[in-house]
Structure formats: structure tokens, C-alpha cells
Amino acid sequence: MTESPKKVLIIEDDDALRSVLADALRAEYIDAIEAKDGEKGLMAAEQSLPHLILLDILMPRMDGRAVFRAIRAHKDLQHVPVSFLTNLSDLGSISEALGGEKADYIVKSDWSIDEIVRHVKEKLGTK
Amino acid sequence: MRNNNSLSLKAHKQDFIIPRYRYGTFLMFVGGISGIAGLLFIAAALFNIVGSAYVQPAEYLGLAFFTAAFLTLIFTTVRLKKGFSTADAIARIMRERSDRYARAAFGSHEGLWDIDIKTGDAFFSDGWHKMLGLPEDSVRSIDGWQARVHPEDKKSAVDALTQHANRLRMYYEAEYRIQNRHGAYVWISDRGSSSDNLPFRVAGFSRDVTREKNVEELLQGRTTELARARDAIEKEIQNTRKFSQAVEAATDPIAIITPSGNVTYANDARSALLGLQRNDMIGRHMLAPYREKTAKMEIAKLNNALRGGRAFSSENFIGERTDGSIFEAAISVFPVREKGVVVFFTSLEQDITKRKNIDRAKTEFVSLASHQLRTPLTVIRWHSEMLLKGQRYQLADAVRKYVLEIYNANRRMIQMINALLNVSRIDLGVFTINPRPTDLTALMESVIKEMAPQIISKQLHIAKHFGRGLPEVAVDTELFRMVFQNLISNAVKYTSAGGAISVSIAHEGEHITFSVSDDGIGIPKAQQPRVFSKLFRADNARETEPDGTGLGLYVVRAVMEASGGTIRFESDERKGTTFYGIIPMIGSKRREGVTVLG
Fold it and tell me: Taking a C-beta distance cutoff of 8 angstroms, is the pair A48, A71 a contact?
């Protein structure tokens, strides 16, 4: 219990979505770090070395696929688990981005906020 | 030869009379009798000279007879000598002439006749009788002749004869049918005339023209036949011309190609599509304009179809015109067979660049819309969930009720958008089919389990009839989950509380069959044909459940058909509905789409 809180980086360009997700995680005592586009997200990841990244796919500047490739290429970040935040129609582009690697994806509109929190906790091994 | 001719002569000799010959015989006869009588009297006179002197007058009479006989003899001898030689000559000439006529008459099937219109008497030669196969001399009157003439021809023949007799015509000429011995009719052509002093005595000849007539009739028939055939051919030519004009004027490119793919004909529309002159297309391979830009695989597929005599159709061709412009094309080829052998192929080409662009725009729109619409919907969903969780804020009951309404409406909207996206993917044909061995019984059970809350709250009874040892079938599990979800949720929605639902799955030969049955509101007969139509909802369904999308069964049918199966239903209003599905045991074909349905 004295353990420092787990860090989850949320890279999502929609402010309302990102903030409500961060609120829900913080309510569970998870350190939620927010980034509003791909570039900022990659920098935040390098700085904070999170335990899990929630990554949106369609974003301005650097999209989720590019961020994912950069993370996997980064020596400090290559083992960090990534869960994609997505809309259904992006499924084709996710599998393309993964290049065969199995990843989790969260179809945003189909998931309740509780389900996402549960998923995050499972990934962090806190539940 | 000679024998034959004399035979023919004998047969016709009686047609000619030679009176002089008979007169000579008579003179010889008279002379002979007188001579014999004279000799007798001389003999008697000699006896008297020897015996008595009282018979002097008899002696004179005998002398007179003898003198007369002697004179007659001398006269006759002179006369006969002269006469015989003249008669011989005449007879010879006559014989030759008659022989000639006879031969001519016999050879040309002619008969001679001589009739008297006044008395009705008639003479018909042997040749004439023979022509009709009648016994000689059996026809002797005009009536006898008329009796044999065909009723239809009688009037014209008799008219011709009387007109000639009345000097209305120079000659008597007629053509008519006349009955022969066997009762059959032969065609006769008559020609005759009379002398000026005996206008009612008409003589002439008849000729058998049956053969000519038959030939004429045959020719007439043939002519009609030919005319008919010509008309038919003309019609055929016109039809063929119409077909070729239709192809020629078609606005879609049409070509005729050999089984090796070479163009033997192409219409103007093809010229326009490819920017080629006709001469530049004929003899060249139909895929020449496509070879550069189209995937090798597609070219090979079409060539294989041509070689195998099969029809082929694809929308994945990319062509390049002579001016360098690029277009996307749909190409169909199909074989034309004669007696089972492929004689050529017809190809249809279509510039589908515009349609492909629209398709792409539609797909992009769907993708964009799904993203753009879902994001705000997700924002509403998550925020209302946060409010309802009430971890930080305890909502007043009234506020909680309002937020709950927002939350529910938002869920419905998300469902509707998911359904619309599914439909749009079905319409675009872009959804993936990923067949995996699937236990349909387990799938059905799990769908029923998902719906337990609704089933329990409506107190519905569910009966399951699953065949034992059902094999797994290779279908897309997630797509069939959607099928079962839609069918069972419909059954739950449209059955009143306490109703019964029954589901079944069975293995029948080459197929797996399943059914979902309810005793609910049913589908009105008049609306049954539209049940699988996009966005259609039956009136009673609309009343019972105002929130449906009218897309569920549309998706069900699309999935069943894309999976190689079929779906149908039976329904009675207010009694219930049963849906029957059939899936082939061989399973579904894999299909790589752009998206998955869900």
C-alpha cells in the first residue's frame, strides 16, 4: 500500500474525453498523465516512463500508429503495454500498425468508463 | 426402227381415205364381167352354126357383148395402166404424208378430231382415244366428249368452240382437263378450225399438255415457295440488322472476342472508351489497354476464364488510353456456344471510375462520420456515467432521473450509429468474413444468456432444441453472434409477457439448420415481403417498440447470404413468427474486407 501510484499516460486529442478518463483513474488513485497529441504524448512518455499508455489512433500532428512505432523503437519504452483507444472503423488501421503484435483496443463508445478503469487495473496488475 | 414406224402407220392408216383406188377396181370388175358374158354368147353362136340356122339375133348380141368387152378391156387396160401408176404415186405420197403425220401425232401425243356442231356427231381418232387410254371409237359425239371434260373447264371449252363456229374467233383454241380411262384428269390443248362453207364442221387436233401443266404448276408452287423463303430471309436479315444496329449503337462498350482474347468486333462505344480507332482494336488482345496498370492476377484470371470457356466478371481493371489518361473498368466476358462448343466470347466493358470514386468517398465518409459522431457520443456517455456513479457528487433524485434519461438516449444513439455503420459496410461490401470452426449451440446459448435480464423481466419461457453431437461449422463467429442476437432480441421484444420462445439447431445432410420461433405479435401478411428491407419496420412492431432501427433483419440477411446460407420466415399476425436459417456444412468463404461488422 505504500507503493507509489502507478502511472498511466493518456494520449487523446479530445479534451473532454481525456479529462473524464483521467478523473476516473485518479479517483482510483492512479497517476493519470495527459497528453493532447502524438508528439506531446511521446515526450511525456519519455519523461514519465508510464506503466501503461492509453493511445488514441486518429490525432493531429502525429497519429497513434506513429506514436506506437516510436514507442516500440524506444529503448526505455519498448516494453510498456499499450491499449488503443479507438472508434470501430479504425480496426483495420490498428492491425496494420501492430504489424502482427497483439495489442488491446478499447472501442470508446462501446465501453463504459467503469469497464475502462477495470481494464487499466488489470493491465497494471493492481486488481 | 423401220418396224416400229410401220406399226405406228398401221395404227393410224384409217385416218386417211383414198377414193381413186376403189374406182379402178370397179372398172376392172365391169370389164371382166362383160368379157365373160361375150365369150359365153360367142360359144353359143358357134354351136348354132354347127346345129341350126335359127339363132341369128343371139349371134349378134354375143358379138356386140364381145366387142363391148374387148373395147372395155382395151380402155381399162390403158386406163388402168395409167391409173395404177397415178394411184400408186398418190398412195405413196399419201402414205408418206400420213406416216409423217402419224409419226408426228404419235410422238407429240396428239389426237385428231372432226366434229359437227349441228348434228352433235364427232369423230375422234385412235390417237385421241389412246391419249386418254380409251378403247378405239368409244367417243363418237360432242356430248360424249363433254361428259369427260372437267366441270370447271367445260364452259370455257364449249364457249371457245361455239364462238369459233359463230365466226367470232378465227380459230378454236381451248385448254381443259379431261377424264381418262382411270377417272383421272389430263390436261388437253385443242386447236382447230372449220372451212368457210361448212362452219359447223370443226376439225383439229388435241395435245396432251399434262406434263407442261404439271411443270407449270410446280413452277408456280416453287415460285410461291421461293417468294416466301425470300420474305423469311428478308425478315431474318432485318432482324439481324436490328441486332447489329443495337450493338452498334449501344452506349456501353461491346466487343466480340476469340477464345484467345483477340478482338474480332468492337462497337463505337469501345472506341470511345479506349480512345482507339476500330482498326486499331481488331485483331489485338482485348486486354491490351489494361495490361500495364491492372494487377497481373486479374489479367491471369480473365485469361483463364477465356481458356476454360467460362464467364468472368471483375471490377478491378485499370486501363490506360492512348492519350495517357487512366480509368477504372468493370469487364465481363461470357462465352457464346453453338452445339456446346464455344465459338466466341462477348465482352462488356464499363468505365467505373466515377462510381469507384463515389464508393471511396462513401467509405471515407462512413469512417469520418463514425469517428466524428462517436467522439461526442462517448463524451456524453462517460460524463453521464461519472455523474451516475456519484463518487464525488451525490445527485438529487430528480437530477439523477434526468441524467439517466440522457444516458439512455445516448446509448440508443450509439446503437443506432453502430447499426447504420454496419449497414453502410454491407452496402459497400467491405466487411470481412473470417470463418472459424464455430459451435453454434454454444454461441446461441451465450446470446440467450446475454439477454437473460430482458427474458426474466418479461417472464418468457425459452425452449431449446439442440441436436446431439452437432459438428462445428466454419463461419464467422462474430457475424453469427449478430445474427442470433438480432433474431432472439426480436423474439424477446415482440412477444408479450409470459410468452414462449423456442430455438433449435439441427444437422440435416449437407446443412446445419436453425430456427428462432416466438408466439408474439407476428408480421402482417401485407408487410411480410418487406421485412428484410433496410429501415423497414412493420406497423405492429413500430407500435410495440417505438425505438427499433429497422436494420436488424437487413443485417441478418446480408450476413446469411454473404456466408453462403439462407434465411426465411413464416409468420401469422397475433400468432407468432419463426425464422429458419440454413448454413452449408462446407461453411463460409473467407472474405477480406476493409472493416468488421460489430
Answer: no
